[in-house]
Amino acid sequence: MKCLHTLFKKQVLFILVGFSYVSATVVSTSPPTSKVKVQSYDYVAGKSFTGKIYVKNIDLTKVVSVIYSDATGDWNNNANLVKAAFSESISDTSYEFWTFSSSPISSIKEFYIKYDVSGKTYYDNNGSVNYVVTTPPPITTTSSSPTSTVTETPPTSTFTAFPSEGISRSAMIRNINPPEAAKGFIATSLSTSGPDYYYSWTRDSALDSYVMANDYNTTLKGDATIVGLLKDYVTYSINAQSTSTACNCLGEPKFNADGSSFTGAWGIPQNDGPAERGSSFILIAVNLLKQSSDDTYVTGTLKPGNFINYFSVKFSCNRCGHI
Ligand SMILES: *[C@@H]1O[C@H](CO)[C@@H](O)[C@H](O)[C@H]1NC(C)=O
Ligand SMILES: *[C@@H]1O[C@H](CO)[C@@H](O)[C@H](O)[C@H]1NC(C)=O
User: Residue limits of the CBM21 domain (predicted)?
Assistant: First the structure.
């Protein structure tokens, strides 16, 4: 039995994703009348300075530079410089997009663009006042407590948290016994098109029932609804194992809502499903014996012959047949 259980220790994975949005400053959204013009730029102190520039295609050889001053206004004799590079032609115009991306720069106050072509130099310095770089408020780290808290402003983040465990569980329960389905049908999804996942995959249903069986022994001890759903699942699954299938093998991966086998094209067999179903049956049996006095159901309905045959052929696991 133990060897069955170790096959799929369930793990709940919480994914925490942090977003840090810095939206680029957009200067101009269409090609200019001048020879060179900033389209947009984005500066993150100590991290990146990137941008996009409209450049008129005057000659093959062009040099486009971004020249910036540091926070104190020092231009370093115009040697604070990032080279831009050709990115793409803008169709139906005589302009191209050039882009730049610097290595980390600790501070920038202003910048302008210098465009050298055919022995001439053109500038975009925002009408001679330069482009002003507004640095977002610094990240403040509070280190007075052992677990430091980081506050980042501004982002108006559209971050949505990973669905909570509660939401996932109620969604799982919602997919069991949908209207007009055979008792114990656990839909992998209620979606019937784009994609159509309205089937009971042996694997998915087994994992759901494994969670429910575990709940029955822990947070939902003695819960009649959960026992009912588990027994429905057992009924559906026993039927699935004696239903004729396209491959006529126990590794048939998915079944229809009415309990019949899916006969379309699919990757068959899928041998993990029956093993997971067997493991769930065992957990249901063990926990029913522990939490209820329903021995008859366990020895009558959940008897090994109803689920273990395929499993014992596939894996040599001597102790698996013993509940
Ligand atoms: C360009 O200059 C104007 C003043 O003429 C200023 O208000 C504006 O913020 C500058 N644009 C950028 C992106 O720095
Ligand atoms: C079920 O819960 C009991 C305690 O009530 C515990 O002894 C037993 O190990 C649990 N069963 C499983 C399979 O975890």
Answer: 28-134
